[in-house]
Amino acid sequence: MFFKIFLLIINFYLIKYITAECSQLIDGISLNFVNQKGINLLKSESERCLNMLTCDVLSAPSETIVEWIYNGKIVYSNSAEEFNLIEEKNRNQLGLSETSHRICFHDLLASNGGNKKKKRSIFGFEADIRCRVRLACNPLMTIESEPFDLLDLSSPPSTPLSIKIGKEGKRRRNRSLRTAPSISLITSSRMEIAGSIIKLMCKANGDPEPKIDWNLIAVDGNELIMPRSIEEYPFITDLNNGDLLVDTKMTEHASFTLQCRASNCFGNDLATSTVILLRD
Predict the structure, then answer these.
(1) Per the structure, how many domains does the chain have?
(2) For the residues 203-226, what does the mean pLDDT come to?
(3) Where is each Ig-like domain found (predicted)?
(4) Strand positions, DSSP E, 136-254
(5) 61-120 pLDDT tens trace
(6) Of 32, 112, 187, 220, which sits most exposed with the smallest number of CB within 10 A?
(7) What is the C-alpha separation between 64 and 51, in angstroms, rounded?
(8) Distance of alpha carbon 99 from alpha carbon 77, whole angstroms
(9) 141 and 58 in contact (C-beta within 8 Å)?
(10) 258 or 182: which leads in pLDDT
């Protein structure tokens, strides 16, 4: 009996904490996949990945934790964490964000080498791939995708060993596949009430570590003739970790789109992020 009472007390304070953390949202919390099945195949700009899987999430607040699951095993986790200023905590917000979590199909294969005993499929191996998402401020709110259909792959997955090329060519290809950048997380869009400070995220994998640059490419629905460096816009602050802070009090624009570019000596990857501001 004492143990049951203890659990009830813990649950009460957990729910109270969750409610407090999510209480500043005007329309309440929400969590949904952008696409019905959850996982889609992305036409990637990355030079290292032919089959980029994306798990696109629409959530409020924007903080989400995504787990990639391969044959029942969590092999990769990615989190989108918001930046909270003290003065922003008392401001009601929409917090509505679309976040794209991405992973290369070949990286999933490499993460689960002990797969030889699995039932073989049309591609020579069994692959049950899912993504599971939960809100950071409410871990009890969780969604899980349907299994990804291997038939959706743009080309049959192959390892470099199966490609009949010379030893030197094989060595160069292996190195290129390992080191060229690929964007693993991007804030695809963010809708917010004007006057707030919001964060846009762009994270990338690669070796050497990719350099991330942002440029403004469209304003109020009009595409710019040439991309403009964010250094020209005082309402945008580069956090020097791939992420941006946008002070919407300092701009009169209703919307704008930025492009994130991750690059190193072996290639680059691109993704866009659109901000939509609502005004009274």
Answers:
(1) 1
(2) 93
(3) 181-278
(4) 142-144, 182-193, 197-200, 202-205, 211-219, 222-229, 236-238, 244-247
(5) 888 889 999 888 888 887 766 555 544 555 678 889 999 999 988 777 777 644 544 444
(6) 220
(7) 24
(8) 14
(9) no
(10) 258
Nearest CA-CA partner of 49 in 128, 102, 123, 124: 102
Identify whether 19 is part of a domain: no
Task: For residues 217 and 257, give the distance between their C-alpha atoms in angstroms, rounded to a whole number.
Answer: 6
The residue among 266, 211, 219, 263 whose CA lies nearest residue 241 is 211
Q: Are 197 and 248 in contact (CB under 8 A)?
A: yes
CA neighbor of 152 nearest in space, from 9, 17, 37: 37
Indicate whether 14 belongs to any domain: no
Domain with 66, as residue range(s), is: 28-278
Rounded CA-CA distance 210/195 in Å is: 32
Q: Locate 100 and state its tokens.
A: 């794209």
Residue 186: CATH number of its domain: 2.60.40.10
Query: CA-to-CA distance for 50 and 48, rounded, in angstroms?
Result: 7
Query: Has residue 178 been placed in a domain?
Result: yes
Task: Select from 276, 252, 245 the least CA-distant residue to 97.
Answer: 276
Nearest in space to 251 (alpha carbons), one of 171, 215, 197, 199: 197
Tokens for 207, please give them.
Answer: 């070796």
Q: What is the pTM for the complete model shown?
A: 0.78
Residues in the chain: 280
Q: Which long-range contacts (CB under 8 A, 24 or more apart) does 152-155 make?
A: 152/41, 153/41, 153/51, 153/105, 154/41, 154/50, 154/51, 155/50, 155/51
Q: Provide the token pair at 90.
A: 């008392």
